[in-house]
Known about the structure:
- The chain is mainly α and 220 residues long.
- It has two domains: 17-102, no CATH class; 104-210.
- The protein is 80% helix and 4% strand.
- The protein contains ten helices and two strands, in the order ααββαααααααα.
- It has a two-stranded antiparallel ribbon.
- A hairpin with a 2-residue loop joins β1 (44-47) and β2 (50-53).
Amino acid sequence: MSESPETAAEKSEANSVNPMLKSALEFGPVAAFFAAYIMLKDQSFDIGGTAYDGFIVVTAGFIPLLIASTLILWRLTGHLSKMQIVTLVLVVVFGGMSVWLNDERFFKLKPTLIYLLFGGALGFGLLRGTSYLEAVMDTALPLTSEGWMILTRRLMYFFFGLAALNEVVWRTQTTETWVYFKTFGLTAAIFLFFMTQGKVFKDHSTDTDEDATEEKETAE
Length: 220
Protein backbone atom coordinates (compact mmCIF):
# COMPACT_ATOMS: atom_id res chain seq x y z
CA MET A 1 0.00 0.00 0.00
CA SER A 2 1.51 3.33 -1.05
CA GLU A 3 1.87 6.32 1.26
CA SER A 4 -0.41 9.30 0.84
CA PRO A 5 1.24 12.60 -0.20
CA GLU A 6 0.58 13.96 3.29
CA THR A 7 2.24 10.97 4.97
CA ALA A 8 5.27 11.14 2.66
CA ALA A 9 5.64 14.86 3.31
CA GLU A 10 5.44 14.34 7.09
CA LYS A 11 8.06 11.56 6.89
CA SER A 12 10.37 13.75 4.81
CA GLU A 13 9.96 16.62 7.24
CA ALA A 14 10.60 14.37 10.24
CA ASN A 15 13.81 13.07 8.70
CA SER A 16 15.13 16.49 7.70
CA VAL A 17 18.15 17.62 9.69
CA ASN A 18 19.70 21.03 10.13
CA PRO A 19 22.61 21.19 7.63
CA MET A 20 24.96 22.57 10.28
CA LEU A 21 24.16 19.72 12.66
CA LYS A 22 24.56 17.17 9.87
CA SER A 23 27.97 18.59 8.93
CA ALA A 24 29.04 18.60 12.58
CA LEU A 25 28.11 14.94 12.95
CA GLU A 26 29.88 13.96 9.72
CA PHE A 27 33.09 15.98 10.06
CA GLY A 28 33.22 16.63 13.81
CA PRO A 29 34.92 13.33 14.73
CA VAL A 30 37.70 13.90 12.17
CA ALA A 31 38.25 17.47 13.41
CA ALA A 32 38.30 16.19 17.01
CA PHE A 33 40.82 13.49 16.07
CA PHE A 34 43.12 16.07 14.48
CA ALA A 35 42.86 18.51 17.42
CA ALA A 36 43.45 15.77 19.98
CA TYR A 37 46.45 14.43 18.08
CA ILE A 38 48.06 17.87 17.90
CA MET A 39 47.70 18.19 21.67
CA LEU A 40 48.84 14.66 22.59
CA LYS A 41 51.27 13.71 19.80
CA ASP A 42 54.40 14.09 21.94
CA GLN A 43 53.01 12.42 25.05
CA SER A 44 53.22 8.84 26.22
CA PHE A 45 50.66 7.08 28.42
CA ASP A 46 51.20 4.10 30.68
CA ILE A 47 48.00 2.06 30.71
CA GLY A 48 48.02 -1.28 32.48
CA GLY A 49 51.78 -1.41 32.34
CA THR A 50 51.89 -0.83 28.58
CA ALA A 51 53.17 2.40 27.04
CA TYR A 52 50.91 3.98 24.39
CA ASP A 53 51.85 7.03 22.37
CA GLY A 54 49.48 9.90 21.66
CA PHE A 55 48.39 8.57 18.27
CA ILE A 56 47.14 5.28 19.71
CA VAL A 57 45.31 7.02 22.57
CA VAL A 58 43.63 9.45 20.18
CA THR A 59 42.65 6.56 17.90
CA ALA A 60 41.09 4.78 20.89
CA GLY A 61 38.96 7.85 21.55
CA PHE A 62 38.10 8.39 17.90
CA ILE A 63 36.44 4.98 17.48
CA PRO A 64 33.58 5.43 20.01
CA LEU A 65 33.18 9.07 18.94
CA LEU A 66 32.65 8.04 15.31
CA ILE A 67 30.27 5.27 16.34
CA ALA A 68 28.23 7.71 18.43
CA SER A 69 28.09 10.41 15.74
CA THR A 70 27.12 7.88 13.06
CA LEU A 71 24.35 6.40 15.22
CA ILE A 72 23.01 9.88 16.00
CA LEU A 73 23.07 10.76 12.31
CA TRP A 74 21.21 7.54 11.50
CA ARG A 75 18.66 8.19 14.25
CA LEU A 76 18.01 11.73 12.98
CA THR A 77 17.92 11.00 9.24
CA GLY A 78 16.82 7.38 9.19
CA HIS A 79 19.48 6.70 6.56
CA LEU A 80 23.21 6.01 6.18
CA SER A 81 25.07 5.85 2.90
CA LYS A 82 27.05 2.75 1.98
CA MET A 83 30.20 4.88 2.20
CA GLN A 84 29.42 5.85 5.79
CA ILE A 85 28.72 2.25 6.78
CA VAL A 86 31.90 0.90 5.16
CA THR A 87 33.98 3.68 6.69
CA LEU A 88 32.58 3.00 10.16
CA VAL A 89 33.24 -0.74 9.90
CA LEU A 90 36.84 -0.23 8.74
CA VAL A 91 37.51 2.37 11.44
CA VAL A 92 36.25 -0.02 14.12
CA VAL A 93 38.18 -3.00 12.73
CA PHE A 94 41.50 -1.39 11.85
CA GLY A 95 41.39 1.27 14.53
CA GLY A 96 40.61 -1.44 17.05
CA MET A 97 43.52 -3.54 15.79
CA SER A 98 45.88 -0.56 16.13
CA VAL A 99 44.80 -0.02 19.74
CA TRP A 100 44.72 -3.72 20.65
CA LEU A 101 48.13 -4.46 19.14
CA ASN A 102 49.56 -1.01 19.94
CA ASP A 103 50.52 -0.65 16.27
CA GLU A 104 49.51 2.50 14.39
CA ARG A 105 50.10 0.91 10.98
CA PHE A 106 46.68 -0.75 10.92
CA PHE A 107 44.84 2.56 11.27
CA LYS A 108 47.02 4.18 8.62
CA LEU A 109 46.13 1.36 6.25
CA LYS A 110 42.40 2.10 6.56
CA PRO A 111 42.18 4.86 3.87
CA THR A 112 43.98 2.58 1.41
CA LEU A 113 41.40 -0.15 1.89
CA ILE A 114 38.47 2.30 1.73
CA TYR A 115 39.59 3.74 -1.60
CA LEU A 116 40.42 0.30 -3.00
CA LEU A 117 36.96 -0.95 -2.05
CA PHE A 118 35.18 2.05 -3.56
CA GLY A 119 37.34 2.03 -6.68
CA GLY A 120 36.87 -1.72 -7.05
CA ALA A 121 33.09 -1.44 -6.64
CA LEU A 122 32.90 1.27 -9.30
CA GLY A 123 35.13 -0.80 -11.60
CA PHE A 124 32.94 -3.88 -11.11
CA GLY A 125 29.89 -1.85 -12.07
CA LEU A 126 31.62 -0.53 -15.18
CA LEU A 127 32.46 -4.08 -16.25
CA ARG A 128 28.75 -4.82 -16.02
CA GLY A 129 27.99 -1.76 -18.11
CA THR A 130 26.40 0.20 -15.28
CA SER A 131 27.30 3.08 -12.98
CA TYR A 132 26.97 2.33 -9.28
CA LEU A 133 27.78 5.99 -8.70
CA GLU A 134 24.57 6.95 -10.47
CA ALA A 135 22.59 4.62 -8.21
CA VAL A 136 24.00 6.37 -5.14
CA MET A 137 24.01 10.00 -6.30
CA ASP A 138 21.25 10.14 -8.93
CA THR A 139 19.23 12.75 -7.06
CA ALA A 140 22.31 14.87 -6.32
CA LEU A 141 23.68 15.27 -9.86
CA PRO A 142 21.41 15.57 -12.91
CA LEU A 143 23.52 13.78 -15.52
CA THR A 144 22.84 11.70 -18.60
CA SER A 145 23.75 8.00 -18.61
CA GLU A 146 26.87 8.77 -20.66
CA GLY A 147 27.85 11.48 -18.19
CA TRP A 148 27.51 9.08 -15.27
CA MET A 149 29.72 6.52 -17.00
CA ILE A 150 32.42 9.11 -17.69
CA LEU A 151 32.33 10.43 -14.12
CA THR A 152 32.32 6.91 -12.67
CA ARG A 153 35.33 5.86 -14.74
CA ARG A 154 37.30 8.93 -13.69
CA LEU A 155 36.35 8.53 -10.04
CA MET A 156 37.42 4.87 -10.12
CA TYR A 157 40.91 5.84 -11.29
CA PHE A 158 40.95 8.68 -8.79
CA PHE A 159 40.15 6.34 -5.87
CA PHE A 160 42.89 3.94 -6.94
CA GLY A 161 45.27 6.90 -7.13
CA LEU A 162 44.35 8.00 -3.60
CA ALA A 163 44.92 4.46 -2.31
CA ALA A 164 48.40 4.42 -3.83
CA LEU A 165 49.15 7.92 -2.53
CA ASN A 166 48.12 6.99 1.01
CA GLU A 167 50.44 3.98 0.89
CA VAL A 168 53.36 6.18 -0.19
CA VAL A 169 52.71 8.81 2.49
CA TRP A 170 52.24 6.56 5.51
CA ARG A 171 55.13 4.29 4.57
CA THR A 172 57.64 7.07 3.85
CA GLN A 173 56.59 10.01 6.04
CA THR A 174 56.21 10.68 9.76
CA THR A 175 52.97 10.03 11.62
CA GLU A 176 52.41 13.77 11.99
CA THR A 177 52.76 14.29 8.23
CA TRP A 178 50.29 11.47 7.60
CA VAL A 179 47.74 12.99 10.00
CA TYR A 180 47.92 16.32 8.14
CA PHE A 181 47.67 14.47 4.84
CA LYS A 182 44.68 12.42 6.02
CA THR A 183 42.84 15.38 7.53
CA PHE A 184 43.45 18.01 4.88
CA GLY A 185 45.18 16.46 1.86
CA LEU A 186 42.66 13.73 1.04
CA THR A 187 39.69 16.03 1.69
CA ALA A 188 41.14 18.73 -0.56
CA ALA A 189 41.93 16.16 -3.27
CA ILE A 190 38.31 14.96 -3.40
CA PHE A 191 37.03 18.54 -3.48
CA LEU A 192 39.40 19.45 -6.31
CA PHE A 193 38.44 16.34 -8.26
CA PHE A 194 34.79 17.33 -8.42
CA MET A 195 35.73 20.96 -9.08
CA THR A 196 37.64 19.86 -12.19
CA GLN A 197 34.69 17.89 -13.57
CA GLY A 198 32.83 20.99 -14.64
CA LYS A 199 32.95 20.09 -18.34
CA VAL A 200 31.27 16.74 -17.66
CA PHE A 201 28.55 18.40 -15.59
CA LYS A 202 28.03 21.00 -18.33
CA ASP A 203 28.11 18.73 -21.40
CA HIS A 204 26.02 15.92 -19.90
CA SER A 205 23.59 17.76 -17.66
CA THR A 206 19.95 16.72 -17.97
CA ASP A 207 18.93 20.15 -16.72
CA THR A 208 19.91 21.55 -20.13
CA ASP A 209 17.50 19.17 -21.87
CA GLU A 210 14.71 20.05 -19.45
CA ASP A 211 15.28 23.79 -19.90
CA ALA A 212 15.22 23.40 -23.69
CA THR A 213 11.96 21.45 -23.50
CA GLU A 214 10.38 24.07 -21.27
CA GLU A 215 11.46 26.86 -23.64
CA LYS A 216 10.02 24.96 -26.62
CA GLU A 217 6.71 24.41 -24.84
CA THR A 218 6.55 28.09 -23.85
CA ALA A 219 7.21 29.17 -27.43
CA GLU A 220 4.42 26.94 -28.71
